[in-house]
Amino acid sequence: MRHLINPLDFTVEELDKLFDLASDIEKNPEKYAKKCAGKKIATCFYEPSTRTRLSFETAMLNLGGSVIGFSDAGSSSASKGESVADTIRVISCFADICAMRHPKEGAATVAATHSRIPVINAGDGGHQHPTQTLTDMLTIRSMKGHLSGFTIGLCGDLKFGRTVHSLINALSRYDDIKFIFISPEELRIPDYIIEMLKDKGIPYKEVIKLEDTIGELDLLYMTRVQRERFFNEEDYVRLKDFYILDKAKLSLARKDMLVLHPLPRVNEISVEVDDDPRAAYFKQVQYGVYVRMALILTLLGIE
Ligand code: CP
Q1: Domain hosting residue 105, numbered range
Q2: Do 124 and 96 reside in the same domain of the chain?
């Protein structure tokens, strides 16, 4: 039995197979419409979500399976003090696979340790969000044709941004990748990621102004400053509008640069950018369904 807790749980070769499967699902959805008949996914979400939870549920329904779960810790027995370990033991009696989001780093790992069914980390605190990374990678691969040779700028909350941490981990295994980290001092990328890049000899630089570097980028990954990760409102208010990508800034970028964002967006991408052909963030959401369908099939061992 396999789980997905960290994007590195899959080898590059396994990811290639997964993305090939996701692309086939995109082209031939009818072939997959009954593959999970009789199977159930449990979506156990202790933190708010629109995309990830509904994307998993849509993925399972598209495969002919069914869905159980909760979308709020307050409506589950966590509110009575039940541990994640006990909850997953119970969920293992009901479902064939579980996608779990939790505000605490490591919660999905704890769940996997006590589970009798595959557990998918749907986001654990500020740590990892591997299925967002699979979504991001499938989007890049589908729109650019490959996953190597890119200069990628990651902009915004690089400290608490789990999507950023997962994506760097995953892309650091591909050739010729260069990272440019664009953040205010307070939201800098964590030191452990910098150490990992240094150990692997992967080039990176840190800058504060988006305008100074946007012209160098093949991919721009925008992120939201996350109110829920701040300890005080004052810091959040000071930093929340630090970056706003608008038409003027986008005019400094290459014509074939892609703008990605895990969403939800607040102010960091102006709505005037949405119609630009480089804006890929709503296409990302669609790719998220295909890759989650492929992941469910893979973890359940269904050909
Ligand atoms: N990208 C993402 O995780 O969005 P949700 O919080 O809406 O699931």
Answers
A1: 7-128+288-300
A2: yes
What would the pLDDT profile of 56-87 be if each residue is shown by its tens digit?
A: 999 999 999 999 999 999 999 999 999 999 99
Distance between Cα 199 and ligand 1 center (Å)? 31
Using the predicted structure, report yes or no on whether residue 230 has a pLDDT greater than 90: no
Examine residue 62 and state whether it is found in any structural domain, yes or no.
yes
Residues 89 and 229 in one domain: no
Ligand 1: centre distance to CA 209 (Å): 26
Q: Is 260 in the pocket of ligand 1 (CB under 6 A)?
A: no
Among protein residues, the one with the nearest Cα to ligand 1's atom 4 is 51
**Quick one: 182 and 239 in the same domain?**
yes
Could you write out the three-class secondary structure of 100-150?
EEECCCCHHHHHHHHCCCCEEEEEECCCECHHHHHHHHHHHHHHHCCCCCC
How many domains is the chain partitioned into structurally? 2
**pLDDT per residue as tens digits for the range 97-109:** 999 999 999 999 9
Question: What is the C-alpha separation between 226 and 246, in angstroms, rounded?
Answer: 20
| Residue 224 domain flag | yes
Are 58 and 101 contained in the same domain?
yes
